[in-house]
Prior knowledge:
The complex is a heterodimer of chains A (571) and B (261).
Chain A: H1 4-10, H2 17-21, H3 68-71, H4 86-96, E1 102-104, H5 111-118, E2 131-133, H6 138-150, E3 155-158, E4 175-178, E5 185-189, E6 194-198, H7 203-211, H8 229-235, H9 242-245, H10 248-251, E7 252-258, E8 264-267, E9 293-300, E10 307-315, H11 318-332, E11 336-343, H12 344-354, E12 366-374, H13 377-393, E13 399-402, H14 406-417, H15 419-423, E14 429-435, H16 443-454, E15 466-474, E16 479-486, H17 491-497, H18 500-507, H19 532-545
Helix pairs in contact in A: 11-13
Chain B: E1 5-10, E2 13-15, E3 37-39, H1 41-56, E4 61-70, H2 74-84, E5 88-93, H3 106-120, E6 124-128, H4 139-147, E7 150-160, E8 165-172, E9 175-182, E10 185-189, E11 199-200, H5 201-209, E12 212-216, H6 217-220, H7 248-257
Parallel strand pairs in B: 1-4, 1-6, 4-5, 5-12, 6-10, 7-10
Antiparallel strand pairs in B: 2-3, 7-8, 8-9
Helix pairs in contact in B: 2-5, 3-4
Bound molecules: flavin-adenine dinucleotide (FAD).
Amino acid sequence: MATTCLKNVLFNRRLTASSIKSSRPSYLLRPCPAAQTRWSSATTEPRQPDADGGTKGGPSTQRYIKYTSESYPGIKRDNKFGKLSKAHVKFFKDLLGAQSAVIDGVSQDATDDLEPFNSDWMRKYKGHTKLVVKPGSTDEVSKVLKYCNNNMLAVVPQGGNSGLVGGSVPVYDEIVINMSRMNSIRGFDEVSGTLVVDAGCILEIVDHFLAERNHIFPLDLGAKGSCHIGGNVATNAGGLRLLRYGSLHGNVLGIEAVLPDGTVMDDLSKLRKNNTGYDIKQLFIGGEGTIGIITGVSILCPQRSKAANVAFFGLESFDKVQEAFRAAKSQLSEILSAFELMDGQSQDLVHAVTAKKRPLEGQYPFYCLIETSGSNPDHDSEKLEKFLEHVMGEEIVSDGVLAQDETQIQSLWSWREGIPECLGHWGGVYKYDLSIPLPELYKLVEDTRERLTSVGLIGDDEKHPVVGVVGYGHMGDSNLHLNVATRRFDTEVEKKLEPFVYEWIAKRNGSISAEHGLGLAKKAFVGYSRSETMIRLMKQIKDLYDPVSRITPLLDCLMTNYTAERYHEPI
Amino acid sequence: MPTPLKILVPVKRVIDYAVKPRVNKARTAVETSGVKHSMNPFDELSIEAAVRMRESKNPPVDDILALSAGPAKCVDVLRTAMAMGADRSIHVEIPDAGQGQAELEPLGVAKLLAKVVADEGRNLVILGKQSIDDDSSQTGQMLAGLLGWGQATQASKIEIDDSDRVTVTREVDGGVETVRFPLPGIITTDLRLNEPRYASLPNIMKAKKKKLEKKSLSDYGVDERRRLKTVKVEEPPPRKGGGKVEDVDGLIAKLKELGAI
Ligand SMILES: Cc1cc2nc3c(=O)[nH]c(=O)nc-3n(C[C@H](O)[C@H](O)[C@H](O)COP(=O)(O)OP(=O)(O)OC[C@H]3O[C@@H](n4cnc5c(N)ncnc54)[C@H](O)[C@@H]3O)c2cc1C
């Protein structure tokens, strides 16, 4: 859905072959989409094949990303959407004034400047946009959208561009509406913990702001140095603290958004309770920008815990991991704030890339990271000690360490948070973000690994496209990240993975996208997780909020071909 | 035959390295209440260095003794030291009078350590080059003076040969310096010496059974009177934030205004 609506609108997916010809692959400068403040921030791009399709020769700053329109020639531009003209650009420049608010590739060549907005974090998707606009206020967003709506110009909303499903970048020439200039913290009430921010505020900056006021943002994730609160809400990001603080559906109190026709929806309530009819803002949480652009968010932020502890375990089997999880829930209960799973191979790959000293002496097939946070250090330590004695004494965990200071806490976390970035070291990563009933959570990784091994796709040298199949994720939320690290995106690999993974999930009534959303990557497969009726209802909502984008069923819209038939070809 | 080492490692409990220190309201000290404390990072390096000496078995290490002087909570850092590999520890309890008043000065600590060295028959003391709270960087040197021992400060590499000679590499401006002294002696540790290990769960549990002696300053007859008076503690002036400009024209205008172009 991601880019969607608004975006879909745009697409005239009928761009003909001849019109694409002009945009040839080129060497690209390494994009740096957003300011980041922490090593783990998501802006270090995984390596991708260069123009020869090779990845040898060490990391380079010039890497080639294939255009989405070439990888997926089945996605057509819908020609009902207009083409950008100089007159359009003039309108935006007059409206937004400031030079830095418009990146204009229509009246001049701005390929390099546009690059970071055209390609995604995974370096898997790349669009052809010629125009980026950065509105600075809700009113400007409204005027931009109204103009686009009236002129049938397709758009794609973009936050920190850290999304993992290709929803934050254009496919064709959709205008990118980038929210980074809307970055003020509007207010914070220390009594209720209610925070009101612009959508373009960066998560890490907001969390620092809250830390100084002894509060915490109820969401944390590896991309915190780049992602926007608006993007987090639009994707209903789950992340590392969901186990403790719950989903954004519960924590977001109000949303201010602009609908595709420019209408400002001011529902920026600060109320915890408000049962007065349908809770429409919920549609924007996880709506991936399909029915409007979020411009402001009010959100309930909990008190920051005074005491935090992190332990890191090595375990012999997935059964032991489950035992450890049950023990953690029952013995740590209210102070447990994260329970993360990492398999042995994921840690091997992190080690291979970072060359950092491993936390544990030995190597194990499974590792877990648990975090506790509470208000009373002595109370927490006592509980934690008992728990640690229990899991060691009962031989549930084989070995483990406990961070003794804040620096160690951060470096233990880096073995979990650093995984996505390290996996991209060799080339592309096929990413699956899945909800699976716990007992079977890891079986998918084993099945997938076996499937790729049996056909000889995995190996240590350049001849084999696949470097490894790893599993990690938010164990506490039954959420597995199945990642296939490759040296290059490869049709053979993709054919073996899809629809295999989705069928596997559908059989177990899981979700094909637990927290990353549908975007471009998953929307064709929504039928594996949602019934026909649910998809029809979603489609009705889309049409209601974004009538201009209403499309003939054959085209675009994520909700159309939900049956197994895919409207786009594998890469 | 090399002499077996009897090592003393003093460890200090300080405000956690990752916490931003704040000056208290009275402006007499850094605020310590309700703030996370951990072992002084340089002391972690010292413990690690001692434990690696034992692991290398050459020369043999008889015993690693950790010591901390300070309020009751210092027991936590001693447990960490023992979980990392120290054999036993001594806690010299100094009641917390609040606002850092009871804190020993480097000379007081050095006198205390000199006593402990004598009582416990130590032949090597490994200290951090400084503690990150008051950054005095004096204790090791004073201790060497009081004992009349050789010292090598800011060690980035330590070797001990069969004839009890300690060779220490230290990073200095523009290169490295290698110094040597015969045991007994004092080493202070610097960041590049090693990468301290994590406290493993089995070792954390074993540490609980290791001996932790409680002592007081009077047991050692140390005069802890302060010779220095803190007059005032102030935060550094806030950095003047760079202003934001909207666009290139704004930047040029600003630069002109400042006379930069
Ligand atoms: C290293 C790394 C770790 C990650 N870890 C997690 C994790 O643990 N849990 C998790 O859930 N996700 C995770 N993600 C993915 C996550 O979805 C994004 O990081 C984040 O939530 C997206 O925010 P963003 O501002 O970057 O949005 P973008 O990537 O810019 O956009 C994402 C989608 O939201 C839309 N959008 C963006 N801003 C707005 C807006 N203001 N109004 C309407 N629509 C908008 C876009 O059109 C797009 O469809 C991770 C990503 C990375 C790179």
